[in-house]
What we know:
Number of strands: 0
Structural class: mainly alpha
Strand content: under 5%
Helix content: over 70%
Distance between the termini: 60 Å
Number of helices: 7
Radius of gyration: 20 Å
Oligomer: single chain
Number of domains: 1
Amino acid sequence: MNSTLYEKDYYLWLENTASLLRDGQLHKLDIPNLIAEIEDMGRRETRTVYSNLKILLMHLLKYRYQPEKRSNSWRTTIEEHRQRIQEAFEDSPSLKNYFTEQWTVGKCYQDAKRLAAKETGLALDAFPSESPFTPEDTLNPDYLPE
């Protein structure tokens, strides 16, 4: 019944699952869907860090490579995405490892670079092949690339 509820009314399934857990009725839990949900929660957390880092890097690139178009809006976006990443780290400190891993792999920077090229109209090769920013500078609330 619980797995059918998962397919028909997700919110009610969540409430029911929480109630079963609180009451210690573990034998009534929809274990396969509960496992899938817990795994998906982890993926959402990493996707959040990735997405915020990508937007942050894109705006840092725009800020550096289009100085004539700098605006308070860009500075606000940079600050907002730094805050979102820091908040994720506060909630889940192990996400710092994910951040470091993504930095090392470089895919996030490549995605940010493609977005920056599209937004600015600059050629993709106008941007460095590797991030010109350090991880520390990227998250530093006082850093702006001049």
